[in-house]
Amino acid sequence: MKRSICIMAITMCGATSLFAQGSMNAYNYSRTDIKGTARYMGMGGAFGALGGDISTLSQNPAGIGVYRSNEIVTTLGITGVSAETKTSVNVNNNLTKFAFDNVGIIGTFNTGKDLGMVSYNFGFAYNRRNSYDQTYRVQYSNLRSSVTNYIADKSFGILENDLAGANVQSGDAYDINGLPWLSILGYESLLMSPQENPEGGYYDDSYEGLFGTKASGSGSLYVRERGRTNEYTFNFGGNVSNVVYFGIGLGIMDLDYEMISSHDENLSNTSGFVPIYEEEDDDNGQVYNYPITSSNFSLWNRLKTEGTGFNVKLGLIARVTDYWRLGLAFHTPTYYSMSDYYMASVDNRYTYLKNNSNELRNDITDSPEGRYDYSLVTPWKFMASTAFIIGKKGIVSFDYEYTAYDKMSLSETDGLEMNDVNDDISSYFKAGHTFRVGGEYRITPQLSARLGYANQLSPMKVSTGDELNIAGMAPHYTLDRGTQYYTCGLGYRFGIFYADMAYIHKNAKSDVLAFSPIPSTGLTSEVATLHAKNNSFILTLGFKF
């Protein structure tokens, strides 16, 4: 029996754009890593109530008010990235990257007063806020379902005539009626076929994938991500009576992201058919549907995203006593202008049964290259910090950060809100919470040792069994399960120069899904656990004058 025509209407309404970003994409571009100078990282990034470090220009801008002299600083590093996926088969991938995490300059103008405005400070800094560099592979030894079934289920309600199009050979079908490109590609490459009607013939708006009740097979998912989010900050701040420090900062964001993925499946006892036009003796041709018996296909995707945006940060630090400091900071959302460039391809090597004989065929189907422009508003943030100065030997500092991930939003370039996607954001996400703690002990007047820990809790409200609306042509996605940082470092001061070193171990956990489950149709997805472990060594060199 056909499903309700109402579902068809919903499907068509959700396909009003050829390509659209979704809630998971918004989250990916909104996240920020804990990155900064070696002193900042050696203390786990717990610097919100301390200041006096170039990294705080991107954290609590009041940190600029703590400076008492001019400073130039830069940070370099090397990171080893290990990504381990766990299913029935465990797979490891490793990557080594060199990084240039920050550079900045602070200018201090002392008034000569002890009360009132003691100093005005200006600063500029480049800080890397996130790195997307990661490669992982998931192996599926015994598939329970197929991405072809996902494409078929998500295409329900779309007329076959619309998917085929009048000019499909020229690629014009991708511009008809704003249909989802993945549905068109799946239809063209025979990953799905019209569903057979028990009363005869085939439905004109319902499809089946290759993985029927008798099918079996194996598969894999390969994902390579590259890119970074950089921030250029312009800050102004001051020192009021050596008790209150304030700051305001303008951040200019630069985002560059690229994802290449390949979803491969090797299936036997498949469903579906290949339509082949054959000439008849009377010169009148006819299309025959020959059943597909096996398939070895690859679904390849490429997505490149570029974006620029801006935000404003406000901050205060109060020296309550000589040994106790408090810090507060607020970050507005970053208002991004974004552009996506994308394409996909299917290489389908399949066998079909013709006249009791197996015939082998290889079809390669490419989508056009597309572009989609839109706007992204990231979450606003609030930070509260406290630090204790222990004599002249030690520091203990604590930070808490609240990030309103459920307030992210996407809109078209003409300002029209993507209401369905923004509703998904409210459903899929909650506020994020980050805790940071760090300590420093001065071994000698020149040498200091540091330790730190940070925990970014996941803001996800969804589980691996929930159905998600996934935008674009790549059906896979990850569910963040939290990130922890363990850090340590050393610092040495010699005159007006200083050098700091730090080691950072970052452990991020995620669930990787090949595609979204669809409970209403009984479709389940393969799920893998991803452990991404980064080991970084960074060096900061500074000059005070």
Structural account:
With 545 residues, the protein is mostly beta strands. 10% of the residues lie in helices and 57% in strands. The chain has seven helices and 22 strands. The strands form two sheets. It has a 14-stranded antiparallel beta barrel. A two-stranded antiparallel sheet has the order 5-6. Strand 2 and strand 3 form a beta hairpin. The N and C termini lie far apart (79 Å). The N terminus is likely disordered.
**Helix vs. strand class:** mainly beta
DSSP helix count? Answer: 7
Major sheet strand order: 1-2-3-7-8-10-11-15-16-18-19-20-21-22
Largest sheet: 14 strands, antiparallel, barrel
Helix share of residues? under 10%
CA distance, first residue to last residue: 79 Å
Parts with pLDDT < 50 across at least 5 consecutive residues: 1-19
What is the overall pLDDT average?
Answer: 90
- What is the strand content? over 45%
How big is the Rg? Answer: 28 Å
Total strands: the figure is 22
Care to give the gist of this entry?
This protein has 545 residues and is mainly beta. Helix content is 10%, strand content 57%.
Task: Furnish the topology, listing elements before pairings.
Elements: H1 5-13, H2 23-30, H3 38-42, E1 71-86, E2 90-110, E3 117-131, E4 134-140, H4 147-154, H5 160-164, H6 181-188, E5 192-196, E6 202-209, E7 216-240, E8 244-268, E9 273-278, E10 286-321, E11 324-331, E12 335-354, E13 357-366, E14 370-377, E15 381-390, E16 394-403, E17 409-412, H7 419-428, E18 432-442, E19 447-456, E20 477-494, E21 497-513, E22 527-544
Antiparallel strand pairs: 1-2, 1-22, 2-3, 3-7, 4-7, 5-6, 7-8, 8-10, 9-10, 10-11, 10-12, 11-15, 12-13, 12-14, 14-17, 15-16, 16-18, 18-19, 19-20, 20-21, 21-22
